[in-house]
Design a protein that fits this description.
Blueprint (H helix, E strand, L loop, with lengths): L1 H12 L3 H6 L1 H23 L10 H4 L20 E5 L10 E6 L1 E3 L2 E3 L1 E7 L4 H13 L2 H9 L4 E2 L19 H4 L4 E7 L1 H4 L4 H11 L1 H15 L4
Antiparallel strand pairs: 1-2, 2-5, 3-4, 5-7, 6-7
Length: 226
């Protein structure tokens, strides 16, 4: 994976079309290595999460070119590579498993991480998750406990509990979540380990109960009710 990290590190310093065009071969090789790993990741996750099915690389990965139409940041390329593996692919709206590679900054050695769950779910889906927690929070909390070494990502949480949910139930932090994610950071040394694939799959497997629990809420939200 060093080839990928090295390319992204250089790109973060030289984020312009001229440099990118002059290093296209390096990008192609890095992308090929990332795609190979993603294919192995898809197969490995499908071994314990049967609903994953036969996903393709295109179903799970993203273009490196940034959408500049509504952004003040006009740098043309993303400085990370990510793969999101979930039932139905990245556009399905279902919870899944995300693997993210991104070089560090002056203040941080790396920005690599794994995440499992829902990021920016549709309003109806988010309501469904909150309603399930309101009805019985224990399955949610138990699924978090099973994911030993992972933590709930509280980034982007609302400042207040949304209307319709109690502010004194003991689960206020869960009701305030806009994303329902478990996260785990990685360092460069983790990526260069010869057992990287095995280790990543072992970690994602810990979050299987969390992901499937969330997808129960997703399916309820998107299924027409009588």
């Amino acid at each position: 994976m060093k080839q990928v990290v090295d390319f992204l590190s250089e790109l973060s310093i030289n984020n312009n079309k001229e440099w990118f065009d002059g290093h296209k071969d390096q990008y192609v090789k890095a992308l090929a290595q990332f795609h190979t790993f993603t294919e192995q990741l898809i197969d490995g996750i499908a071994s314990f999460h049967k609903e994953i099915g036969n996903l393709s690389i295109k179903d799970c990965t993203y273009r490196i070119y940034r959408d500049l139409r509504f952004s003040k940041d006009k740098t043309p390329y993303k400085t990370h590579m990510g793969a999101y593996i979930c039932p139905g692919g990245k556009k399905s709206g279902q919870a899944g498993y995300y693997f993210h590679l991104e070089p560090g900054t002056k203040n941080k050695s790396s920005n690599h991480f794994m995440a499992s769950g829902l990021w920016h779910p549709a309003p109806g889906v988010l309501k469904s998750v909150r309603d399930d927690i309101l009805y019985d929070a224990q399955p949610y909390l138990e699924s978090v406990r099973k994911a030993d070494g992972w933590i709930i990502d509280y980034d982007e949480s609302l400042q207040r509990v949304p209307p319709g949910y109690p502010a004194d139930s003991g689960y206020e932090n869960l009701f305030r979540l806009k994303n329902h994610l478990l996260a785990r950071n990685m360092e460069d040394k983790n990526l260069y380990d010869k057992n990287l694939l095995k280790n990543v799959l072992s970690e994602f497997k810990k979050t299987y109960t969390f992901v499937t629990l969330l997808n129960r809420s997703v399916i309820y939200a998107i299924t027409p009710q009588d």
